[in-house]
Design a protein that fits this description.
It is elongated, with a radius of gyration of 22 Å. It has 337 residues and is an alpha+beta fold. It folds into 2 domains: 157 residues, no CATH class; 173 residues, no CATH class. It starts with a helix and ends with a helix.
C-alpha cells in the first residue's frame, strides 16, 4: 500500500524559503529513496543523486565546485600538468578522473577522495542557501551522476550543519530559540553519527524542560557551536519540540497518514493549524505528554511492541502529532526485537 502510493507522487518542487535542502534530504533519507534532488539559485544549479539513505553523486555549475578547480585547490596539481590534462579533456572528452589516473597524477584512492570532497562541498553549500528553488524526483540515475561511492545522508547533514554558519531561517522554521527540546533518538543512531563525548553530552541535556537558547548557553561547547549542533539534532529528529501546542503543525488527512514520511512532508494540503502560545495545558494535553514520555522510554529500552501500543494511544489523543507519527514510522521500520 505504502509503496504504491509513493509511486504516484514522483516529483515535488518548493521554494527554499519554505523548505530547506536539509529538510528535503532528511525526509528522503527517512524512506531511503532513490532519486534526484535539484536546487537552483540564479545562475547556479546543483544536483544530488540519492540511493538507500546515501548520496551517490553531487555536481554543481559553481566553477569552484567543479573538478578543474578542485584538482588545483584540493589536489594541488601543478599548473602545467593541470593545463595539459584540461586541454586533453577538451579534445578527447575523456573524463578528467581517467586522465589524471592514466598520467599518474593521482592514485585511485586520491580520485575517490576527490569525488567525496566534491560531493560534500556541493551539499554543504546548499545547506546555507536561504533562497532559490528545490525539487526532488523519484527515479533512477538518468544523468550519469553516480560516482560509485556512498556518502551517508545523515552524517553529511550533521557535518555540514555544524561546520557552516548558523542557519537562522531554518532555526526559525523549526521553532526558534524559545522552543523546548526533548530527546527522540535511539542509541544506534548516535553511534552511527559518531558523536564525540561533548556532542553526545549536549544531546543528552535536552530533558523536555530547557529551551534551545538555554541549551546553547549551557552546553559543553561554545554557544555558537552548541547552537549549530542543536539545529542539526533537530533537523535529524534526534531532538523534537517538547510542547507541540506551542508550534505550528501541518494537518494531514487520514489517507495521507498511510504515505511514507517524504510524501507526508511534501503533501500539498495547504492546511495549517495554529495553537495559542498562551494556552494553559488541559487534562488531555497532560495525559498525552505523560503517555508520550512512557512510549519514548519503552522505545529507548527497545521494548518496541509496548512503545507501539503507547504511541497508538497518543495518536488517538492527538491525531497527526508529528512526533508520534515519526516514532510509529521508526518502529514499523525496525520491527520488534
Amino acid at each position: 500500500m505504502r509503496n504504491s502510493r509513493m509511486q504516484r507522487k514522483l516529483r515535488h518542487e518548493d521554494s527554499i524559503e519554505l523548505l530547506s535542502v536539509a529538510e528535503v534530504l532528511r525526509s528522503v533519507d527517512s524512506v531511503a529513496r532513490t532519486g534526484l534532488l535539484t536546487a537552483s539559485k540564479g545562475a547556479t544549479t546543483a544536483r544530488i543523486l540519492t540511493r538507500a539513505g546515501a548520496i551517490c553523486g553531487a555536481h554543481s555549475t559553481d566553477p569552484e565546485k567543479r573538478l578543474p578547480a578542485l584538482l588545483k585547490s584540493y589536489c594541488s596539481l601543478p599548473s602545467g600538468a593541470l593545463e595539459g590534462v584540461l586541454e586533453q579533456h577538451l579534445k578527447s572528452r575523456t573524463p578528467l578522473s581517467v586522465l589524471v589516473l592514466e598520467q599518474g597524477l593521482l592514485s585511485p584512492l586520491e580520485i575517490r577522495e576527490l569525488f567525496l570532497h566534491q560531493a560534500r562541498l556541493v551539499v554543504w553549500d546548499l545547506l546555507s542557501w536561504t533562497s532559490g528553488e528545490v525539487s526532488f524526483e523519484i527515479g533512477e540515475d538518468k544523468e550519469g551522476l553516480d560516482e560509485g561511492f556512498q556518502l551517508p545522508i545523515r552524517r553529511t547533514l550533521l557535518e555540514g550543519l555544524r561546520q557552516g554558519e548558523l542557519p537562522q531561517q531554518l532555526l526559525d522554521r523549526l521553532g526558534g530559540t524559545s522552543m523546548v527540546l526533548e530527546s527522540s533518538f535511539h542509541h544506534d543512531e548516535v553511534v552511527d553519527l559518531a558523536l564525540d563525548d561533548r556532542e553526545y553530552a549536549l544531546l543528552s541535556m535536552a530533558d523536555g524542560r530547557q529551551t534551545f537558547e538555554a541549551l546553547a548557553a549551557a552546553g559543553p561547547l561554545s554557544e555558537e557551536r552548541n547552537a549549530k549542533l542543536l539545529v542539526a539534532f533537530t533537523v535529524l529528529e534526534l531532538l523534537v519540540p517538547a510542547q507541540a501546542a506551542t508550534r505550528q503543525l501541518r494537518v494531514v488527512t487520514e489517507d495521507d497518514l498511510t504515505v511514507s514520511q517524504v510524501d507526508d512532508l511534501f503533501a500539498d494540503t495547504g492546511e495549517i493549524e495554529i495553537f495559542n502560545d498562551e494556552a494553559e495545558p488541559d487534562a488531555a494535553t497532560e495525559s498525552f505528554e505523560e503517555l508520550f514520555k512512557q512510549a519514548m522510554s519503552c522505545y529507548l529500552e527497545r521494548r518496541y511492541e509496548e512503545a507501539r501500543t503507547l504511541f497508538d494511544q497518543c495518536n488517538r489523543l492527538r491525531p497527526n502529532d508529528r512526533r508520534v507519527l515519526h516514532n510509529l514510522d521508526r518502529i514499523s521500520k525496525r520491527g520488534s526485537e
